[in-house]
Design brief:
The complex is a heterotetramer, with two copies of chain A and two copies of chain B.
Chain A: E1 2-3, E2 6-7, H1 16-30, H2 33-45, E3 53-55, H3 57-63, E4 66-71, H4 81-94, E5 99-104, H5 108-120, E6 123-129, H6 130-135, H7 137-145, E7 149-153, H8 160-173, E8 178-180, H9 191-209, E9 216-220, H10 225-232, E10 240-246, H11 251-254, E11 256-260, E12 263-267, H12 292-299, E13 303-308, H13 310-324, H14 330-342, E14 353-358, H15 366-372
Parallel strand pairs in A: 4-14, 5-6, 5-8, 6-7, 9-10, 9-14, 10-13
Antiparallel strand pairs in A: 1-2, 3-4, 11-12
Helix pairs in contact in A: 2-4, 4-5, 4-9, 5-7, 9-10, 13-14
Chain B: E1 3-9, H1 16-25, E2 31-34, H2 45-56, H3 61-71, E3 79-82, H4 85-89, H5 125-135, E4 140-142, H6 152-161, E5 164-169, H7 175-184, E6 189-192, H8 208-218, E7 223-226, H9 232-241, E8 244-247, H10 249-256, H11 261-281
Parallel strand pairs in B: 1-2, 1-8, 2-3, 3-4, 4-5, 5-6, 6-7, 7-8
Helix pairs in contact in B: 1-11, 2-10, 5-6, 9-11
Classes of the chains: A alpha/beta, B alpha/beta.
Chain lengths: 374, 296, 374, 296
């Protein structure tokens, strides 16, 4: 829960016991072989793990680097989010909870939560900003088809930030029966640790799949869960770790220390301490905070963070599609965009081997892309 | 005597100080001043709306404290600030990592050099925050998203500045933790009477009285009940279980609906009357002595 | 190419040499270890194979059967179609072709073809009926993003039947540089055999993944490629093989012998021999013919064919989503619908073990479902 | 003499026989009668449209043969049917599997019992089809999607009925296959002059003359070029390479556009004149003798 000076548990007293119970339950479960085997079984037989590692041969040749893609887009529901929710739903079931509450931005975490709830026969309530609902209708319908209740959030920026506030408020009122199934590596302790542990399967699989330790490991960062999971597999290697943020939502690059959603980290805020609205074409990255572990990795220098613009992201989606036949999510395309820009520069010298986590597939973004790309 | 702490969002209207004076005139024992935050995790729709309105009108910690300082001579009851951790810890020095600017906006609260973003230096962090509250005449502080585990530094800063850091307890708070809260809270204990956000309710939560009783059993501090106390009758019921009440959303809804300070004075007076009625039910022996510094 | 009295190569003389060359090339490639290894490598590192076998535990408990799902929905591009196109694109490359021509119904084969073309740096032209374009806009945009040219077909029923005609016409005009990347187990020899061989990976994986030989193996049938690939893994076992057709497009059930699209099989046609338009909510099953191997398996009795209605299909999508957290394609839901109806009846007695191939995911169908389910 | 075989979609208009008579009057050597099929794989947009229009007007093999039989006394040139395999093999007996009905519609072509769907019995299959053509006075048959490899049974049926099964050859057809086609075709050989579907083109394909030359080298049958021959000038060029031409889309487009039988007579006459012109260029010694049975 604490990563250097970041993290913590800045929640109302009403939630403290639930956070403490969750922490205890996860500690217990995580050291229980039966729990881990059950999770591993679900990952293999249900979620489609291990996901493939794809050598992007044509793009590599064009760029002069060896680009390896960790294919979370192939996981069930279309993104890495399923790794986290399967673990949390198993944990919730173990804790006797009958309901999952979640926030969602792009809708991928909401779909994953609705999926896990259906699988375990639990009720799911997903908070989603009105603005995100409008741009991610496909995912809203998927959630509803899976039996989840999607609650539009009309406050504030009407995106992930306010959906998270609403989900936490809802949790306060339902803490007995509901587990708050948080989607990223933010939130109060134990979430940043718990979610990182559940996502480390990305990095661990990738490390086992790569013949050599890559020179650079890169992933997009909104809250930062796919990056945290990826980095976890390589933090003890000499690989450079690069997180790529949306220029309009770059807490690592433009944030200052602050406390939101229960944790202390770097936060986009104005001079008076009011949290700013992020602005990115990728709904999943429209978030003014960032997981506290990233703040720690960034301030200690172990990981580096870069930003790319919406235009670079759109170009990256198209280029990856045309070169490799893979349509990735707008979120994931941030990592691709950085590789496209940096390859051949001192930031990513020719000849480097790059492991890139493709966090999700782009089906959900077709409506957005249809308006933007051509 | 049963305490009545009405809540007022600082800057909710340009003439917000008039509401504060009306609350005082109506017999408030103290007023909680909400310092509006963009992401009020524990607030329901009404207080969120009040905060958003204040922020839209340009309210900030600085502007609110300035307004209070200007009105100081007319205020004779204690003031308690209520806000969220981000505003309290804002500009808390940050020792490692790259420097980043938050932009060149001239804001009275921010340093203006390029180093302003990551560290606001001597004028920032909880120590400076508490000092500034004290300078504006505020004597208490409630920060709902700083539970006791995260409170060490803020507690020290508040003590140093002569501010009572009021801690909150919830229906789910376990006994050992309740005892610690009782021990470390200053001024009074804020009993969160319901497992929910702030906001009006049809009835006082069934969790209110048991929590108050549990608190009374572990502390001699006054126990004030808040959250969902919407009518004088509910306030009276709550006050019977504890030592008083905090009234927030029920008042702010009226302000948002356009009620005048006079209207609010009548509203608060009705709560006062209900509490006074309870006082008459209660044998004098069980009433707590007034806590020094809370009425001046 | 010949399955009993079905199959053959009923094509214009202009296409005969191309079909013959394709047959020779595939015979050669299929016995070439290097080719098969390259394909296996692509399947593993690119397409996400082997796909998972998921025990549908909640639905099994409700139905009184053991239902195992072969998860082709987890394959790259979202359906089993990728198995076929990766093989055909490799073959086309081996034959020196620089372009792929394809027909598509629901768009899944078109997306798969566009994907393989991007991966191999080939040009792709996809023919798609105007009516299918309207109901599968997501897939149209995916194809275009992948760099394929999507050509609307305005003749006849404006669905898969006419798209196939147009693709074959286009092939006549471009036979030197283009490979006709046919999507199902129809078409002139060698296609029904070639596509079945490329899809048999479904059945072979499933057989290796199931602890025992299932009592029943079931898959949806339009042209019938996922069923053919699945059946191929079990045809030599005692398992009953069940193909499920759309009530409005049931060539096995309502067809008569005929010749369309270059092959002889059972065909929906009127008394005068004019081919009828199929009518199903699933664009991928809106096809009046069926692969000749199915006609053979059906007439010899080795496989059985059933039909389900659109309403049963919609219910099946919803029920699978809510019970197992899997949103399948409308096509795949035909197989699920049959299991829902038959479980506990003599057709599928209580206690049976059923292997069901879930041929694709339902993201593409959300627009259709949004209008129909709720 | 260079042969001119114009193509006419049977039933394209209610008075379609008038177009046939106009073609004859304009000097056609034979007429190809298209029996419309829903899925004409080798036809471009114009012939597809012509087929669709005929089907919409209710045309069927039966109705077209009935119309031809009725007009028989006025027709003195050979007629050649052109259609697709499904109509030729329709009702081909099907020996195994469950019986299925195609529905109870009363159609002169279908048996009407419950067994009608899977097997139409003695009145069905290529044998019956060829017999019916012969009965209607048709002497030739072209089925573009029955290549020589699939032609055995149809070939026998055609021979038995006295119908010439005309085979097609394409620019890509390899030498051994070309020889086989030359050997097995009857009446003439249809040289598909371009690797494309039927339809008008700006210029005669460069593949036309070489294919004709290759065919002339392996067979003594007349070689008629078709596909994409759109103007009298193109027809003349094609005819120089072979023994005549088939004109389809260029004529059907005019019919679809509303041209009258008289208009079409003029059109066909222009093609006739162009071919006659070519005849005059050619030394009499190289012209082929007329094939018996093809002009009567």
């Amino acid at each position: 829960g604490r990563f250097g000076e970041f993290g913590g548990r800045y929640v109302p007293e009403s939630l403290v016991p639930a956070c403490a119970a969750l922490e205890a339950a996860f500690r217990d479960a995580w050291s229980d072989t039966a729990f881990r085997e059950r999770l591993a079984h679900l990952r293999t037989t249900y979620a489609g793990r291990p996901t493939a590692l794809t050598a992007a041969e044509r793009l590599s040749a064009e760029l002069g680097v060896t680009l390896l893609l960790k294919r979370e887009d192939l996981a069930h529901t279309g993104s890495h989010k399923i790794n986290n929710v399967l673990g949390q739903a198993l944990l919730a079931q173990r804790m006797g909870k009958t309901r999952l509450i979640a926030e969602t931005g792009a809708g991928q975490h909401g779909v994953a939560t609705a999926t896990a709830a259906a699988l375990f026969g639990m009720r799911a309530t997903v908070y989603m900003g009105e603005r995100d609902i409008a741009r991610q209708r496909l995912n809203v319908f998927r959630m509803e088809l899976l039996g989840a209740e999607v609650i539009p959030v009309t406050s504030g920026s009407r995106t992930l930030k306010d959906a998270t506030n609403e989900a936490m408020r809802a949790w306060v009122a339902a803490v007995d029966e509901a587990h708050f199934c948080l989607g990223s590596v933010g939130g109060p302790h134990p979430y940043p640790w718990l979610v990182r542990e559940l996502q480390r399967v990305i990095g661990e699989e990738a490390r086992a799949q790569t013949p050599v330790i890559p020179d650079v490991v890169v992933a997009c960062v909104g809250g930062g869960s796919n990056a945290a999971g990826t980095f976890a597999g390589f933090v003890d290697t000499p690989a450079r770790l690069i997180g790529v943020e949306a220029a309009g939502g770059a807490a690592m690059t433009n944030g200052t220390p602050g406390v939101v959603h229960g944790y202390r980290s770097l936060v986009l805020q104005d001079a008076a301490g009011q949290v700013l609205e992020a602005e990115s074409i990728a709904a999943g990255l429209d978030y003014p905070g960032v997981g506290p572990e990233h703040a720690h990795l960034g301030t200690t220098g172990r990981a580096e963070y870069r930003t790319v613009t919406d235009d670079e992201v759109l170009d990256a989606v198209r280029r990856l599609a045309r070169s490799e036949g893979i349509i990735c999510a707008l979120e994931s395309a941030h990592a691709v965009a950085w590789v496209l820009r940096a390859a051949g520069t001192p930031d990513l010298p020719t000849g480097s081997t790059v492991l890139l986590t493709l966090s999700g597939r782009g089906d959900k973004d077709m409506a957005t892309l249809a308006g933007e790309v051509r | 005597m049963k305490r009545l702490n009405p809540y007022l969002t600082g800057g909710i209207t340009p003439d917000w100080i008039d509401y504060l004076l009306a609350f005082q005139a109506a017999g408030a024992d103290a007023v909680e001043i909400g310092l509006p935050f963009s992401d009020p995790m524990l607030d329901g729709a009404t207080i969120q709306q009040a905060s958003d309105q204040a922020l839209r009108l340009g309210a900030s910690v600085a502007s609110i404290l300035t307004d209070l300082a200007a009105a100081r001579s007319r205020i004779c009851i204690p003031l308690i600030a209520m806000t969220y951790a981000n505003l309290v810890f804002r500009g808390d020095p940050f020792t490692t990592g790259p420097a980043t600017a938050t932009g060149p906006e001239a804001d009275p609260e921010a340093g203006s050099g390029p180093e302003a973003g990551r560290s606001l230096g001597a004028g920032s962090g909880p120590e400076a925050f508490c000092r500034r509250l004290a300078e504006a005449g505020i004597t208490g502080l409630i920060v709902p998203d700083v539970p006791v585990d995260e409170a060490d530094r803020l507690e020290a800063a508040a003590t140093a500045a002569g501010i009572d850091l009021v801690l909150l307890a919830a229906p789910v708070t376990p006994p050992d933790r309740l005892a610690e809260i009782g021990r470390r809270s200053r001024g009074f204990i804020y009993a969160v009477s319901v497992m929910d956000t702030t906001g009006e309710r049809d009835a006082l939560a069934t969790t209110a009285a048991p929590l108050a009783a549990r608190l009374k059993a572990v502390t001699d501090l006054p126990v004030l009940l808040g959250f969902g106390i919407s009518t004088p009758a509910q306030a009276a019921t709550a006050a019977r279980a504890g030592d008083g009440v905090v009234i927030g959303a029920a008042l702010m809804r009226r302000v948002l609906d356009g009620a005048t300070p006079d209207d609010l004075r009548a509203e608060v007076a009705a709560f006062r009357a209900a509490l006074d009625q309870v006082d008459q039910e209660v044998p004098a022996a069980t009433a707590h002595a007034e806590i020094s510094g809370h009425r001046r």
